[in-house]
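User: Okay, second chain of the day. Same drill as before: sequence in, structure tokens out.
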Amino acid sequence: MLVAAAVCPSPPLLVPEVATGAAPELDAARAACLDAVGLLAAARPDRLYVVGPAPEGAHGVYPAGSAGSFEGFGVDLSVRLGDDASKDERPDGRPAEDRPLPASLAVAAWLLGRAAWADAPIEGLGVDGAATPDVCAGLGRGLAEAADRVALLVMGDGSACRTVKAPGYLDERAEGFDAAAARALGTADAAALLALDPELAFELKVAGRAPWQVLAGAAEGAGLDGRLLFEDAPYGVGYFVAAWS
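Assistant: Same drill. Structure tokens below.
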């Protein structure tokens, strides 16, 4: 059963080493993310699932110990998912997967490392950005049923079309979409998250739609309350941090 969730944005710029000048404009977002992860630990989960968007070929499960790198962003920095960061094997003795973590899960691994997470076993899930709401909700239900006390760390950005300098340029629909997403995330409204339009999300370059809808499926019947800890669009991209408990 889902007992807690944290929602965080997933830009590699959250990692100061990746950001030119450490991007101090993201300090508030970083602090909010660490607060949200701390609230996950306070829920004392039996298992933590880290869920984030993944490009084609990178969908699926990533066991604890899976490695990621920010070399593609010009930085010699590696991370591992889970508290066995110094090991090359999974807790069951099998080697960690060879394929690298997608960027969203690498950012999550960095956050968990900063928070010194050691409160529950971890597993990652890279989600296809084209997955339908029904498929996403089904994935979430499966995660919620995997242990008595499940927590989710859900990574993903809002629209990338908030300004003319945004990656997707300015789209007047973006602000309304992000407002609806922020409202749903801040009130733990699973139905509203599942109602987000996948086609519109694709047009607005919303990376978080599918992971948010995985969260919505996991939260069905859990009776969680939500709080929005951060909301901004510093580069024309919607960034939200929320905590559900």
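Confidence is low (pLDDT under 50) at residues 84-96.

User: Thanks, on to the next one.
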